[in-house]
């Protein structure tokens, strides 16, 4: 009996021992499986990390930039950006025939792209809002190309109010100075943006605005409609076409904005320091003489524009007049631009209204930088301050074009009204008190 009981105990012990050993083996096998899986996962992650590191070394490009100052050459810019002389020479050589490096402008930037290990991957220069010069290394050295800059174009309506200047108002509206220049050109026949703007004047413009996808540049296309309210009087311009099929601006009634002459030989902010007079005390000669023109005070270098289309009769230095440009226009009119620092036209050349013909200076008998401007009609000096008040307009729209013009006017004005409503809605949303919706019963 005792031996039988002892045998039963031994069997149960062996059975339990076997079970424990079996469970231990299973657990040990699971541990080995987990360890193997962890090792494989670690190996995969390590491989992925090595691949990512290699990708970063080869693909990630970090750019540094250098602003172009007056007189700085492309080669000097590369040197300052740390490009080796041999590589710089190869880059410059690759650009020849692709882009004229003499056209680089002060205020732009040259960028150098390198890998994280410092290997040169790209040199680029933004030529303008639409084009980029890109130079990349290849097996033969470097290859250069001018590439388009991707952009987005949208029709936008811009509004503003004059506080100090048109430039300042356009900037306050979040737009670039190019738009202010465009407005000045459109209304240059009716408004002198040196003297006419008043604080509180307003403007609105519907324009095609092109913005690069990287957000770094913006340009403006066609201005379809423009309005400038000067001292309570609105001036409006609609883009259409003239009798020759060229783009031109008209009032909503179909009257051409173009006139025989612009209202000023300068575009912005210059004071009239001396007007037309038959007897004026000369500040240099200290005698009383006729002053048969208008003096505009402006800094040296201020652009001077032709007030009308015509041909250059004389361009050069002429005694007390200093550097001078003399233009002959239609209907017996002539204009003269004196004391220039630079002359940008030559005798016999044809110029168009608004073309830049020189820069303000103080050459000849001049006490300070200014533009002396003369207008003659049939050889007789005319007072331009009086003449410009009644400048004749160009031909109005042809009767056959009025129906199409009316359709364009209706479409543009509808779009402007819609934009105005949207703008007022946005303003109301900003200032309106919060309204709690009524509960649903």
What does this molecule look like?
The longest helix has 58 residues, at 2-59. The chain starts with a helix and ends in a 10-residue tail after the last helix. Mean pLDDT is 82; it is low at 429-441. Helix 2 runs antiparallel to helix 3 (85-95) and helix 4 (166-172) crosses helix 5 (177-186). The chain has 441 residues and is of the alpha+beta class. The protein has helices at residues 2-59, 74-80, 85-95, 166-172, 177-186, 384-387, 402-431; strands at residues 61-67, 109-115, 120-126, 131-138, 141-148, 151-161, 202-212, 218-230, 233-241, 247-250, 271-274, 277-281, 288-291, 294-297, 303-305, 310-317, 323-328, 333-340, 342-343, 350-351, 356-359, 370-377, 380-382. Strands 11, 14, 16, 17, 18, 20, 22 and 23 form an eight-stranded antiparallel beta sheet that branches. Strands 1-2-3-4-5 form a five-stranded antiparallel beta sheet. It has a five-stranded antiparallel beta sheet with strand order 6-7-8-9-10, with helices on both faces.
Shape: elongated
Number of strands: 23
Output the helix-strand order: HEHHEEEEEHHEEEEEEEEEEEEEEEEEHH
Tell me the number of helical segments per DSSP (H or I, 4 or more residues long). Answer: 7
- Report the CATH superfamily of the domain at 271-390: Glucose Permease (Domain IIA)
CATH class of the domain at 271-390: Mainly Beta
């Amino acid at each position: 009996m005792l031996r039988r009981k002892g045998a039963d105990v031994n069997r149960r012990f062996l059975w339990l021992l076997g079970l424990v050993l079996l469970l231990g083996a299973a657990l040990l096998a699971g541990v080995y499986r987990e360890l193997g899986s962890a090792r494989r996962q670690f190996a995969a992650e390590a491989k992925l990390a090595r691949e990512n590191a290699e990708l970063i070394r080869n693909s990630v490009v970090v750019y540094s930039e250098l602003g172009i100052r007056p007189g700085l050459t492309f080669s000097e810019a590369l040197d300052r950006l740390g490009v080796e002389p041999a590589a710089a020479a190869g880059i410059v050589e690759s650009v020849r025939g692709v882009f004229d490096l003499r056209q680089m402008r002060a205020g732009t930037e040259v960028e150098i792209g390198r890998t994280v290990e410092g290997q040169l991957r790209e040199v680029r220069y933004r030529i303008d809002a639409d084009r980029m010069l890109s130079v990349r290394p290849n097996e033969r050295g470097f290859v250069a190309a001018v590439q388009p800059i991707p952009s987005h174009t949208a029709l936008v309506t811009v509004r503003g109010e004059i506080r100090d200047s048109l430039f300042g108002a356009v900037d306050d509206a979040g737009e670039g100075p190019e738009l202010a220049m465009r407005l000045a050109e459109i209304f240059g026949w009716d408004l002198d943006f040196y003297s006419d703007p008043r604080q509180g004047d307003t403007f609105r413009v519907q324009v095609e605005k092109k913005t690069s996808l990287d957000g770094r540049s913006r340009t403006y296309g066609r201005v379809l409609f423009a309005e400038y309210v000067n001292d309570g009087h609105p001036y409006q311009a609609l883009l259409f076409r003239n009798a020759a099929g060229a783009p031109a601006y008209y009032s909503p009634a179909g009257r051409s904005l173009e006139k025989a002459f612009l209202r000023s030989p300068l575009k912005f902010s210059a004071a009239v320091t001396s007007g037309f007079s038959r007897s004026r005390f000369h500040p240099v000669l200290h005698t009383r003489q006729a002053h048969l023109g208008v003096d505009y005070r402006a800094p040296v270098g201020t652009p001077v524009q032709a007030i009308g289309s015509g041909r250059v009769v004389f361009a050069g230095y002429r005694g007390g007049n200093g550097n001078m440009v003399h233009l002959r226009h239609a209907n017996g009119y002539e204009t003269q631009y004196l004391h220039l620092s630079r002359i940008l036209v030559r005798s016999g050349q044809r110029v168009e209204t608004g073309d830049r013909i020189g820069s303000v200076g103080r050459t000849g008998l001049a006490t300070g930088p200014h533009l002396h401007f003369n207008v003659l009609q049939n050889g007789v000096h005319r007072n331009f301050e009086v003449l410009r008040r009644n400048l004749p307009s160009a031909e109005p729209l042809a009767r056959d074009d009025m129906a199409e013009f009316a359709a364009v006017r209706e479409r543009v004005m509808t779009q402007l009204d819609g934009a105005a409503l949207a703008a007022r809605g946005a303003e109301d949303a900003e200032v309106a008190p919060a309204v709690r919706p009524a509960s649903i019963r």
